[in-house]
Amino acid sequence: MEKASNLDSKMYVLDTNVLLHEPLAYLSFQEHDVVIPMTVLEELDHIKDRKHDVSRDARVAIRGLDEVLKDASPEQMLQGVALPSNKKAKTESRGRLIIVNDHLFADSISGLPGNENDHRIINCAVHLQKQHSDSKVVLVTKDINMRLKAKGAGLKFVEDYRTDQLIDDIALLTSGYKKIDGDFWQQVGECETEQQGRDTYHHVAKNTISDVFCNEYILDDSDHFAARVTSYDDKQITLKDISVERLMSHTAWGVKPKNVYQGMALDALLDPSIELVILTGPAGCGKTGITASFFSIFVQTYLQTLFLLKKLSIYNRLRSNLSNMSLSVT
Q1: Which helix (H) or strand (E) holds 96?
Q2: Other CB atoms closer than 10 Å to residue 292's CB: what's the count?
Q3: Neighbouring-strand partners of residue 200
Q4: How confident is the chain (330 residues) per 10-residue block, as mean pLDDT?
Q5: CA gap 326, 253 in Å, rounded
Q6: Strand, helix or coil at 95?
Q7: Global pTM?
Q8: Which of 70, 85, 180, 191 is spaced 20 to 30 Å from 45 by Cα?
């Protein structure tokens, strides 16, 4: 039982990208020790002078660390300085902030060559794991490849930084669509259909689809049917008939969907009745490209509109001034 209680003690080694993502991230580990390798401080120092937004985050992180460590002696910094209280923390802080000179550790500890900063940080974590065998040493980094290399080097615990997430379990988020097994219309049977301009709406029984949400998309295995829930009550669900072909034909300023999921995203983004669209998905699914393209187009359109309005305002003022001028010829 004594060993189990010791393992409850955790030591988190933070990578540079964690502090750039959230400059005061070390305050999120209130009850545990937080280690900042010297290599991380060096990377922050190199980044802080760049002319990018990330340099501001680096400066905030450096100032925050200085505020905690400014009155500490070199010996105290190596032993650990008590973390300040955090208003978001539910318990009183018991952890320490520790600066570790990872340049002193031999490369042979992890087996990774020491000519890369990532390798030195991993080397530091592996060294601490061997030195503090009664504690759980965790490397925290947002770099997926670094997490893989750390495990390959023998580090038992690596984590992504997820403290900033508003939802603890991403699986609780709705996907935004439902996939119906088989052919949707064979399961529905009869339904009421109405035409509103160019759009077709179907009213189906409420028990046809379970747990629906407004603006949720409905697909089936036929690869042809697609619809969006526009409203529902205790008796029926109203679906806007879209079809997969129509989703795939969406285009906006040169942006075209590569699959039905991107088609649903474009359909939602192009619908003025939907005020907020949240795109989720794995890396490479296109969510960043689609939203970045829309934002770029919005900014260009907005600036062009301002430019035209400015020209129109100058023109109107000029006409007004000319009309008020009196010219006398003798």
Answers
A1: strand 96-100
A2: 11
A3: 195, 241
A4: 53 94 86 92 90 85 92 88 64 77 86 87 94 91 93 93 61 78 84 88 87 89 89 90 88 81 86 81 71 66 64 64 50
A5: 49
A6: coil
A7: 0.55
A8: 85
**Which ranges in the chain belong to alpha helices (H)?**
2-7, 16-21, 38-47, 53-69, 74-79, 117-131, 144-152, 184-188, 244-248, 260-270, 287-324
The per-residue pLDDT for 3 is 38
- The answer on 186 and 155 residing in a single domain is no
The predicted structure's pLDDT at residue 144: 92
Alpha carbon 222 to chain centroid, angstroms = 33
Q: How many domains does the chain have?
A: 2
Q: Are 97 and 85 in contact (CB under 8 A)?
A: no
CB 36 within 8 A of CB 162: no
**How many helices and strands in the chain, by DSSP H and E?**
11, 12
Within a domain: 72: yes
**Longest C-alpha distance within the chain, in Å?**
112
pLDDT in the model for residue 108: 81
Asked if residues 49 and 172 have their Cβ atoms less than 8 Å apart, the reply is no
For residue 215, give both structure tokens.
């603006």
Which pair of structure tokens corresponds to residue 183?
A: 């052919």
Query: Do strands 226-232 and 236-241 pair parallel, antiparallel, or not at all (unpaired)?
Result: antiparallel
Q: Domain range spanning residue 17?
A: 2-159
Q: How far apart are the C-alpha atoms of 12 and 46, rounded to whole Å? A: 23
**Interior/surface letters 235-271, b for 16+ CB within 10 angstroms, e for the rest:** ebbbbbebebeebbebeeeebebeebbbbbbbbbbee
On whether both 215 and 247 belong to a single domain, the answer is yes
Count Cβ atoms within 10 A of the Cβ of residue 304 and give its class: 0-12 exposed, 13-18 middle, 19 or more buried: exposed
pLDDT of residue 171: 61
